[in-house]
Amino acid sequence: MKESMLAYYAAPGPMTDLGQYADLFITLPEDIQALAETIRGFVVHIFWAERMGLQLDETRQAEVSLRPVREKLHRLIELHDAPLDQPRPLEQRLVCNCRDFSVLFTAILRARGLPARARCGFATYFTPGKFEDHWVVEYWKAAENRWVQIDTQLDTLQRQVLKIDFDPVDMPQNKFILAGDAWQMARSGQADPDKFGIFEWHGLDFIRGNLLRDLLSLNKVEVLPWDFWGLLQEKSVSESSATELAYLDHLASLTLKMDASFPDVRTVYDQNPSLQVPPEWIA
Questions:
Q1: How far is CA 124 from CA 129, 130, 151, 228, in A?
Q2: How far apart are CA 250 and CA 255, in angstroms?
Q3: CB 64 within 8 A of CB 153
Q4: Is residue 145 left, alpha or beta, with left meaning phi > 0 and alpha meaning psi from -120 to 50?
Q5: Where are the alpha helices (H) located in 118-219, listed in sequence order?
């Protein structure tokens, strides 16, 4: 089963297939840290752009709404048709968010045959006392027989401003809270659900959204942070029945025991239409 799981995450999914743009990444570094730094040379985070001196109009901001990596790369080439191992001026970088950093990195690793998966949850290192909406990457480090968690977004400026005191390319487990963990913490009373979210959006409904996004990402369907579909369009958590809450509890448990529950994670997505995204999103 482990070999099957690793083979699954080593292959592209509908959002991470590089398509005709695969050759763009041939010259990029093999080293994980160097690769993350290279990616940060051709993308810019939408929330950090102004601090870095880049003003974004509506057209540039809309780049974060491109779902598949191949559409993002098409836009990147439109901005400047140059090798990706050459750092670009800010105005020629693709505008991204944390989901995009993670999905781009995942796509490149999968194109190289390395098992990788984007994970949705909450970071503890952006706002003290808060669990902020965020995405990271897990990749399989075969030499150590383990999944390694990496935050590809954290550049030098962000590490300085946020006073990051850990290694972003091999993160301690308590720095990023997987959405399933957040759900269990909030449901058990271990944590205040209103401390999970971003800006004015927070609470159990927000945590449920990230839980479902993480479940989909584990099925290689990495949706946008603001995408709503199926189960997310139904009643709020406060209106859910005990049976419905138990189902969400079950999904959270599955996402936290991937090495053991991989077949169940695949089955629960394939057999539940309310979890599946609109076909056009993954066409």
A1: 7, 6, 12, 25
A2: 9
A3: no
A4: left
A5: 156-161, 179-188, 204-218
SS3 52: coil
- Give the model confidence (pLDDT) of 164-221 as tens digits: 999 999 999 899 999 999 999 999 999 999 999 999 999 999 999 999 999 999 999 9
Element (H, E) at 109: helix 98-111
- Within 8 A by CB and 6+ apart from 114, the residues are 10, 139, 140
Q: 264-280: per-residue pLDDT in tens?
A: 999 999 999 999 999 99
Q: Say which residues have a Cβ less than 8 Å from residue 281's Cβ, sequence separation at least 6.
A: 67, 221, 223, 227
Q: Is the dihedral of CA 199, 205, 207, 211 positive or negative?
A: negative
Q: How many CA atoms lie within 13 A of 112 on its CB side?
A: 20
* 225 Cβ contact list (under 8 Å, min separation 6): 97, 98, 99, 120, 133, 135, 213
Tokens of residue 91, six digits = 């105005």
Name residue 2's amino acid. Answer: K
